[in-house]
């Protein structure tokens, strides 16, 4: 027999006959990237920035705000404890693959040692690492993967939308699992399935210490079985949770873990407010490092004794790992916000410049995109492929998309302030709301009211300048501060007028856009479609993003989506910073270099032996 290889086709010539077969399968990959070649595609032993000889030991002290009442983060009900996350594995569980910290949209092996998919991206396979184990010593199996996928897609709003195009998960070998997709050419889907958290089927289908069947569809305070570098050591519900490093963790020698996970214990203590956590940080021994997101505090308040002695250190790191939309999300499920002129008027009344000058020490930039800070942000007028994509929905989107560059108001003179107020009043009038007796009212005599939902007293300081401007045009605006548990419940139920949050965006947006802005997620409780967007044009543009054939197409489609979201005024954009401000007690060894992409990797730090407490 003579074999001639031609691409993926093998031509077999034997006994005077020719048979065609497709014996060559797609290659197995140990690294994948949506933005180019993986930085560590060959001979990957560890991240370049870590200290492979970092000592293990000590306790990392951290804090939580509010309270918690569940150790199951994969249900809408309840508030999960610190260290648990609603998407991904958090401290407790490993995922099939893991996101690189030094390169965007790149993944390396974790539970899966390799992945395989065809050129048309119609399916993906993962081959599990035979060493992968749960903390009880049992192997992580293909059955665990399939059970986790089916369950999470059924009960989690995030997983449901993220993996909406996955129609089946099946076992194709002793350690192989295959996911098949409803459509081809979803370039992102094979990779993001690597983010699937794997849960222990045998544990969740077993019984608790009292002999009662466990129920993964409900919150629980029983310590779940995990698989990752840490496990839950102890809990005092609502007050503390302590994690301990797993000495015999199966994946400790994987390249992505070398030089990392150095703390013996991670302790979270809960406080009722963000201000209380600040006092705890200043005291020491309770809160070891903090991300400082208050510009005034960063500029003026690090003058307490420990900081002046040098026991507390301030550092800033550039961050390039994500774009973002941070803003006031207007709940368009409510009739008063279901008018584009009203939403545009509310955007005109937000004075960023004064807030940045008076509260933020000019440390922030204005959010001007749903992908602010990265090259996926739209600008200028649409052209080329982006314009072609927009033409497919021309009749369904604001005409200004094609004729005007989107610009937010700039409050740089008193004249501009008066101009924006007049323009906002005119827009309200066109929407049926006119000033009467100092209040903005509709034809039925109802006053336009807005309640801002907040979860901390510091929200009042941030919201109040905007609220003052709203009151100037006759809006009855107020703020409601609730505790963390009530806040999460109201967010899950979309029980608010306006809420403030941030939506982080990767360099390779895709299926998650359905959860952020898609019609099907608008009424799916617990989704991240906070504005309640139901717009067929946006649904179509999301599909252009998801099914982009290459990077150029993805950028064009994302620009188009960004532009249409902006011109519909679903969110009043706020601000962002291009740096991470970190303050920490001087008890850490920190690698000289931190990952450029993520900005920081605290799990590459270690406790200095002389401060090992």
TrEMBL record:
For this UniProt record, give its keywords in alphabetical order, as a comma-separated list.
Periplasm, Signal
Known InterPro entries for this protein? Answer: Peptide/Ni-bd, SBP_5, SBP_5_dom
Domain of life according to the entry: Bacteria
Q: Which residues form the Solute-binding protein family domain?
A: 107-521
Give its localization: Periplasm
Q: Which family does it belong to?
A: Belongs to the bacterial solute-binding protein 5 family.
Query: Under which name does UniProt file this protein?
Result: Extracellular solute-binding protein
């Amino acid at each position: 027999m003579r074999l001639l290889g031609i691409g993926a086709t093998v031509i077999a010539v034997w006994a005077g006959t020719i048979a065609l077969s497709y014996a060559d399968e797609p290659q197995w990959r140990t690294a994948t990237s949506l933005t180019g070649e993986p930085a560590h595609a060959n001979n990957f032993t560890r991240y370049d920035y870590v200290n492979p000889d970092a000592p293990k030991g000590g306790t990392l002290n951290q804090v939580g705000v509010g309270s918690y009442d569940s150790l199951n983060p994969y249900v809408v009900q309840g508030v999960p404890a610190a260290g648990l996350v609603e998407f991904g594995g958090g401290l407790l569980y490993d995922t099939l693959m893991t996101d690189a910290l030094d390169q965007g949209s790149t993944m390396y092996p974790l539970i899966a040692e390799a992945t395989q998919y065809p050129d048309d991206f119609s399916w993906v396979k993962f081959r599990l690492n035979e060493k992968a184990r749960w903390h009880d010593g049992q192997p992580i199996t293909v059955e665990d993967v399939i059970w986790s996928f089916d369950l999470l897609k059924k009960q989690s709003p995030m997983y449901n939308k993220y993996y909406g195009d996955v129609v089946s998960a099946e076992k194709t070998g002793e350690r192989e699992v295959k996911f098949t997709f409803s459509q081809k050419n979803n370039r992102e889907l094979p990779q993001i399935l690597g983010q699937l958290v794997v849960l222990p089927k045998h544990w969740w289908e077993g019984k608790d210490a009292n002999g009662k069947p466990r129920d993964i569809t409900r919150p629980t305070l029983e310590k779940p079985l995990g698989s990752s570098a840490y496990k839950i050591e102890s809990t005092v519900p609502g007050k503390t949770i302590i994690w301990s490093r797993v000495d015999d963790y199966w994946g400790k020698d994987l390249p992505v873990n070398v030089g990392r996970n150095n703390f013996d214990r991670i302790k979270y203590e809960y406080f009722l407010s963000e201000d209380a956590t600040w006092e705890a940080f200043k005291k020491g021994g309770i809160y070891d490092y903090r991300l400082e997101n208050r510009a005034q505090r960063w500029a003026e308040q690090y003058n307490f004794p420990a900081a002046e002695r040098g026991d507390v250190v301030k550092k800033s790191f550039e961050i390039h790992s994500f774009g973002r939309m941070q803003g006031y999300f207007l709940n368009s499920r409510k009739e008063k916000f279901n008018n584009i002129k009203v939403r545009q008027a509310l955007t005109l009344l937000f004075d960023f410049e004064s807030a940045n000058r008076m509260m933020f020490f000019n440390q922030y930039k204005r959010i001007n995109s749903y992908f602010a800070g990265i090259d996926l942000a739209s600008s200028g007028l649409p052209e080329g492929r982006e314009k072609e994509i927009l033409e497919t929905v021309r009749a369904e989107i604001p005409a200004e998309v094609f004729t005007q560059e989107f610009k937010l108001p700039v409050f740089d003179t008193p004249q501009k302030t008066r101009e924006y107020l007049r323009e906002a009043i005119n827009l309200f009038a066109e929407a049926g709301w006119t000033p009467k007796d100092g209040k903005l009212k509709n034809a039925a005599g109802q006053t336009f009211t807005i309640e801002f939902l907040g979860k901390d007293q510091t929200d009042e300081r941030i919201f109040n300048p905007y609220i003052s401007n709203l009151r100037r045009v006759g809006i009855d605006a107020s703020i409601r501060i609730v505790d963390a548990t009530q806040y999460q419940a109201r967010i899950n139920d979309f029980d608010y007028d306006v809420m403030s949050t941030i939506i982080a965006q990767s360099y390779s947006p895709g299926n998650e856009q359905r959860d952020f802005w898609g019609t099907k997620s608008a009424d799916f409780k617990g989704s991240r479609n906070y504005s309640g967007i139901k717009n067929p044009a946006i649904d179509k543009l999301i599909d252009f993003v998801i099914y982009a054939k290459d990077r150029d197409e993805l950028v064009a489609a994302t620009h188009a989506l960004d532009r249409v979201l902006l011109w519909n005024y679903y969110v009043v954009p706020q601000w962002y910073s291009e740096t991470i401000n970190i303050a920490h007690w001087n008890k850490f060894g920190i690698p000289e270099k931190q990952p450029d992409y993520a900005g920081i990797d605290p799990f590459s730090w270690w406790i200095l032996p002389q401060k090992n407490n």
